[in-house]
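Board work, copied verbatim: RING-type E3 ubiquitin transferase
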Amino acid sequence: MAEINSHTPTISPTISKPCNNNPPQHGLNLMVLLAAIICALLCALGLNTMLQCVFQCANRVLTQPLHWIASRRINSGLKKKEMVALPTSIYTNSPHESPLSTTSLDSNCAICLEKFCDGDKMKLLPKCNHHFHVVCIDKWLLSHSSCPTCRNIINSNDSCFCILIS
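↓ predict structure ↓
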């Protein structure tokens, strides 16, 4: 009799692992959740800052004294025809040649801080009698309607100020 070699399957001693190579999903979900929380926090901080600014501006407008607002509008600059109407003069050192060269006047411009030289064109402001270089005071008066030294308001009807020589 012929021997029949029958091979029976044998079980290997190694344990097989499942073929799932995907990393765990809980780490990715945690990162997305953390990013969403940070974005929401930044949006909330931005909205809070914007609302604080709006409320502060609205509060300032409602609580400002009306006379302060009116004085800001009054001191907003002169018109060109009012600036041209202000008296001008030429600076000289000798007191008998020009009424602006008396010893009571400072010898320098309070705006540019340069000394007045012979032949400099000067403007004299009414009321306060402060004097400045024409270029300096014209630049100032475009945005302010007051004297830069004493802050007296210059009215349009003050510009017809005349210097009397006695």
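The helical segments are 26-63, 66-74, 80-84, 134-143.
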